Amino acid sequence: MGNLTKNLVLWLVIAMVLMAVFNNFTPKDSRTDVELDYSEFLHDVKQGGVEQVTIDGSSIHGRTRSGQRFVTYSPGDPGLVNDLLEAGVIIKAQKKRKHLLVDADFHQLVSIVTADRCVGILYAPDARWRGSRRDVVWAK
Hints:
Blueprint: H1 3-25, E1 34-35, H2 38-47, E2 50-56, E3 59-64, E4 69-73, H3 80-86, E5 90-93, H4 106-123, E6 127-129, E7 136-138
Parallel strand pairs: 1-4, 2-5
Antiparallel strand pairs: 2-3, 3-4, 6-7
Helix pairs in contact: 1-4
């Protein structure tokens, strides 16, 4: 392979890995959510305007009866769940998220390892791995 081809493949692999990493950091639903003050959220709950909420730590994502998506943040209100139940709101809860590296998806880890192997093949096509050690043996 020529140097230009090697460089193009390398940059494609780097771009794919970066896209996978950035997709992991991007919140899935928050791009279209309207941010509400907590007091406004409570007012909407008591008026019966909230249909469903998902509680994720202190973040509360939800949907109004008119279909509008929103997000608000709980200050640790101990009576919130009772207020939601009394208003007939559907409540979902998310499990606490682990650290990003611990909770990484398997396919992302595989793509990183694959990218590492591709770069090794591109820049040392005549090298091979010896045993379980990572000593490179150059072919003659």
